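[Solved] Which block belongs to which protein?

Original post:
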Amino acid sequence: MLNYVEVLLVEDNIHDAEMTIRALKKVNLANNLVHVKDGEEALEFIYARGKFSDRHSAHLPKVILLDIKMPKIDGIEVLKQLKGNPLSKTIPVVIMTSSKEEQDIINSYELGVNSYVVKPVDFEGFARAVSQLGLYWLLTNQPPLPQNKQ
């Protein structure tokens, strides 16, 4: 299962994670989803380290939904590492956060984020936003084919 992940959800708030998963399930896009609770776990998952060392690192998610304000390693640092590594730089990353701070938005785009979404406060708005994101990044978006490393 961990080798065929479509969505990597990086969210420390369990309530927001549950709402995101529920919204994706509603449009049948949560079958291949993995939820990790902080930036450290996200990097371990992507690069097949630590508790994810059994996972094959060549099988990358189609999209990463990433919160900014998290313990251990925050979302900005995760984004910096993802976009700075040839293995992971083409994975679409969508920041999903409650932060409307202009500097967070600027930093995210300077580091290469694909989209920055401020989480709607009400459940219906949140569910609609997550469903639209999932449909776009998993069904509409055309990512590059994986390159054969020789």
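(Second protein starts here: sequence line, then its structure tokens.)
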Amino acid sequence: MDHIRVNDKLRLEKVNLSMAKVVFDTIDNDREHLKQWLPFVDYTKQISDTEKFIASISNPENKKDLIYSIWHKEEFAGLVGFKDTDWANRKTEIGYWLTSKMQGKGIITSCVEKLIRFAFKNQKLNRIQIKAAKQNTKSASIPQKLGFTLEGVEREGELHQSGYFDLEVYSLLKSDLSK
């Protein structure tokens, strides 16, 4: 699905190359905030880096990633989507990032909640996971609010410029929603 209406203020639009400038400019203008938890920020130095990323996830042969731009009152707010989807085992991971000025409005919680329903109903997936750096309490609050189960910690699961971060691994099963 190319467009998903989340609510009257929020919509998701499948990322495409025409969005490269707004995505790159947002990363570039909010670099200090974003790089604290997102290792790709240090490697996103010019618009061509963003264009390469968008081209790779938009490639029709890529069946593992489905990334959406987040629009809050028609202003770009960040990205959210499915990554590393394993169709054989009916599971995926949801990843997200949001600009500093859009924090604290419930945007990511609403978007992830909508994507959960989409994944279980439309994509017929069985399992969704979210990983958050152990120290990133804001990110971890999303799966906690949405009823995910903390399964454990992936030790030194993500490399950042400052070193490795332990990742908390949260999961939600389709059967969890019927409990």
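Accepted answer:
You had them paired correctly. Confirming on the second one: Residues 3-178 form a domain with the Aminopeptidase fold (CATH 3.40.630.30).
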